[in-house]
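Standup notes
- DV: blocked on the single-chain target, sequence here:
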Amino acid sequence: MRRVFMTDRRLLLAALLTAAGCALPAPAFADLRLCNMTQSRVGVAMGYKDGQGWLSEGWWNLKPNECETMLKGPLAARFYYVFAQDYDRGGEWGGKTFMCTRDKEFTIRGVEDCLARGFDRTGFFEIDTGEQKNWTIQLTDSTRPTPRAP
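- DV (later): unblocked, structure below
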């Protein structure tokens, strides 16, 4: 998986205008984005810790070569967790950090006792943002998972 910092042309334009004597406030721009750089449709779930504890959410459905803002505003945590499914070719991007999910749209508080609470227990992979306030995750064909056995 390749991590890319987003660039913002608006910041460059604001810097040029300020240097030219036009004082404009620089736009605040910070988000967590995920880009599906594959040729398949993918479904994405995300987990993170907020002020109230662990939270998992899903599903964002991304078309091929589409990006989606997962969280708006400056990132509040260093670590975020992602699980993605390839709808067209099968397979998944997962990991060793288990959180609760379900087949339909969800927002689930807590990561404990997923099965006992009626949810699925799913392995997410970890994203370390290095405490940046802005981050983009890219799913690519080179990181594409092997198909899951039926």
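- Follow-up: The chain has one domain: 2-20+30-143.
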